[in-house]
Amino acid sequence: MEENSKDKRLDLMVGKKLLYVHGFGSSGASGSAKGLRILLPKATVISPDLPVHPAEAMELLHHICETEKPDLIIGSSMGGMYSEMLYGFDRLLVNPAFQIADTMSEHNMIGRVTFSNPRKDGMKDFLVNKTLQQEFREVSSHCFEKVNKDEQRRVYALYGIHDVLVHTFDLFTEHYTQAIRFNGAHFLNDHALVHCVLPVIQWIDDRQEGRERPILYISLDDTLRKADGKPMETAVKAYQQLSAIYDTYILATVPYNQPDSWGEQVRWVEQWLGVPAYNRLMISSHKNLSYGDYLIDAHDANGADGFMGTHIKFGEDPYKTWEDVMVFFDRLGGQ
């Protein structure tokens, strides 16, 4: 696990239960389950081996939900498909395989499959035939049956832009609103757990706890982004660290006669800042009207000089670099 995973988020999900639902051909001993235990040392991570037959898997998951009452469910791939149907719980679906029966055919998954991780029952492999494929088709046909506004609020989905196995982004967004693309593939690695999964866990835990963090605004141009379109030196790392502590937003100014520039700014934020910046980009030509505690901005224009909180003038002493800015926030200790 990456060293920078040891940040303020280690205090998330304190005393809570997290149910991890593994993917096809995996087990409860998956690397993702182990990673979550490292990242969330004060939480209990429940990670069962799922039965091969989908109806039995759903029966087991419903039983665990009834007895353990998890505070959060995270499902990956096949596990994401199962988790969508565990209504009434906060859920995070990672590359959910809602059309898994079709995926089996498209990617030659019919035949003998060896489990990628050890199972407690000692099973080494299993057979995928047309009967099992039809069982998956039947169970997955019940996805989205109980979606309502409350469920839409409780469910996030993460989609890796390099995923070559599952492509259900459009299907998910027909029913839910919180779909986020991330720079990753189908299978989670340590980087994706730290920089993509963990921020979403933070949002969910904050909501559950009614936790309000100090509000921080960061201007996009000349502060996060250089004139050539590349990020300022160490700006991405600084944003990741600050978003773990503060309720962080990005302020962009869009000229009235250049509305198309908004889409370009959205793409830049998604590419460089990733999941922590999801839904955090705001248009503001009057930054003095933005309520918050801190504003990091290289300029005084567009109301920055009238910001009611603390204006940190990026690029000038004592905040000439992002390293200087982080020294200031480290001294604050999250206040």
Question: Your description of this structure?
Answer:
By secondary structure, this protein is of the alpha/beta class. The protein has two domains: 3-209, 3-Layer(aba) Sandwich (Rossmann fold), CATH 3.40.50; 215-332, HAD superfamily/HAD-like (Rossmann fold). It is 34% helix and 17% strand. It has helices at residues 31-39, 54-68, 78-84, 100-106, 130-140, 149-154, 169-173, 190-209, 235-243, 261-273, 322-332, and strands spanning 17-21, 44-46, 72-76, 91-94, 111-114, 125-128, 155-160, 179-182, 215-219, 247-252, 281-283, 294-297, 310-313. The strands form three sheets. It has a six-stranded parallel β-sheet, sandwiched between helices. It has a five-stranded parallel β-sheet with strand order 11-10-9-12-13, with helices on one face. A two-stranded antiparallel ribbon has the order 5-6. Helix 1 packs across helix 8 and helix 4 runs antiparallel to helix 5. The longest helix has 20 residues, at 190-209.
Chain-wise SSE layout:
Blueprint: E1 17-21, H1 31-39, E2 44-46, H2 54-68, E3 72-76, H3 78-84, E4 91-94, H4 100-106, E5 111-114, E6 125-128, H5 130-140, H6 149-154, E7 155-160, H7 169-173, E8 179-182, H8 190-209, E9 215-219, H9 235-243, E10 247-252, H10 261-273, E11 281-283, E12 294-297, E13 310-313, H11 322-332
Parallel strand pairs: 1-2, 1-3, 3-4, 4-7, 7-8, 9-10, 9-12, 10-11, 12-13
Antiparallel strand pairs: 5-6
Helix pairs in contact: 1-8, 4-5
